[in-house]
Specification:
Elements: H1 2-15, E1 21-31, E2 40-44, E3 49-51, H2 59-72, E4 76-81, H3 82-85, E5 90-99, H4 103-115, E6 119-125, E7 136-141, E8 144-147, E9 161-167, E10 172-176, H5 180-191, E11 195-199, E12 216-218, E13 234-238, H6 243-252, E14 260-263, H7 267-280, H8 286-290, E15 292-293, H9 305-320
Helix pairs in contact: 5-9, 6-7
Length: 337
């Protein structure tokens, strides 16, 4: 959810000179709903919104209820019973609070995003519908704490409940390759809010303009590739369509352990790449080899580049969320465990 919070803050920065804002946050859920607690949407004084907390069914009620917060500048709790309105069998508790950001917060937030530090939030709420200045959200960045509304009180109160949330660094995707399927994978991954770096072989006649949604485009000499920026909030897809280049990149990446490491192509190709890789680097650890997934992607019958990109991104998501992919209609219980 880090990218969603960043998008809300970016939207506020771009529009704060023209409008006042309130923030709606789902802080509690009884039963099931379209999304989990922690989702947010921003509403301005003209009734326009940015972001969403459901599939679109709750937003109109939140916008209507938010108007009193603009007038009173007092946070409020509303409850939305989806059992009667939506058939979702869930009761959603939503905190609506005045929303403003100091220049100091914006600086600290952007610095933490750039340096890939984790951020934490704590929203105080109650389970009944109420207006209360003691309700609101506080963000912690390092040792510093910031509130979204200026009158928020941090005094402890036994009647207050706390919804706490952590925001990990934005998930990165490193795509090694510059063919048309890499272009499609980049485009699809950008819709998920991934921080995308394209690593193209030096002899490719491409620029970042070919890759919609990419943040970075680099063409390093393979032997000098710096892998220090690849961490546990990263995924790697090796898809150069060149056997020799894949091996060279694999050698350059031999000390990396991302959350996901995928190789494009059939399993026989993976075996040959690993065999040749071991000829160059026989002392490689078993842990490194075990993380290599090939063919990359879930078996969903994908054929076209766009379908293959969905297959790959689905597997990455299942790995980082620690889920075994299955058909939801065959699952017992709630969609969200």
């Amino acid at each position: 959810m880090t990218i969603e919070l960043k998008n809300i803050i970016d939207y506020f920065i771009q529009n704060s000179n023209q409008n006042k804002f309130v923030l709606a946050t789902v802080v509690h859920l009884e039963g099931s709903s379209y999304r989990r607690p922690g989702v947010r949407m921003l509403i301005n004084n003209n009734g326009e919104s940015f972001g969403n907390v459901s599939g679109g069914c709750v937003e109109k009620e939140i916008i209507r209820q938010s108007q009193s917060v603009f007038k009173s500048e007092i946070p409020k709790i509303i409850k939305y019973d989806g059992r009667f309105r939506l058939g979702c069998e869930g009761i959603i508790t939503i905190l609506i609070e005045p929303f403003s950001l100091s220049k100091k917060f914006i600086t600290e937030f952007n610095t933490s995003i750039e340096r890939r530090f984790s951020i934490y939030s704590s929203s105080t709420y109650k389970l009944e519908q109420v207006e209360d200045l003691n309700l609101g959200t506080q963000i912690q960045i390092g040792e510093k704490k910031f509130s979204f509304h200026k009158n928020f009180s941090t005094k402890s109160n036994k009647k207050k409940l706390y919804f706490k949330q952590s925001f990990a660094p934005i998930f990165r995707l490193f795509i090694f390759g510059a063919e048309h399927d890499a272009v499609q994978l980049c485009k699809s991954a950008s819709l998920l809010g991934r921080d995308i770096t394209i690593v193209a072989p030096p002899d490719e006649n491409k620029t970042i303009n070919f890759f919609k949604g990419a943040k970075n485009f680099i063409t390093p000499i393979i032997e000098s590739f710096n892998s220090n920026s690849i961490d546990k909030q990263s995924a790697i897809i090796l898809m150069t369509h060149s056997f020799n280049k894949d091996i060279q990149y694999l050698i350059a990446l031999k000390e990396t352990f991302p959350a996901y490491f995928g190789l494009l192509g059939p399993s026989k190709r993976r075996e040959k790449i690993i065999e040749k890789f071991l000829d160059h680097y026989p002392e490689c650890s078993i842990e490194f080899l075990d993380q290599l997934r090939g063919p990359a992607g879930l078996d969903i019958g994908a054929e076209s580049p766009s379908e293959i990109s969905i297959s790959i991104l689905s597997e990455i998501l299942s790995v980082i969320r620690q889920k075994n992919a299955l058909i939801l209609s065959s699952k017992n219980g709630n969609v969200h465990d």
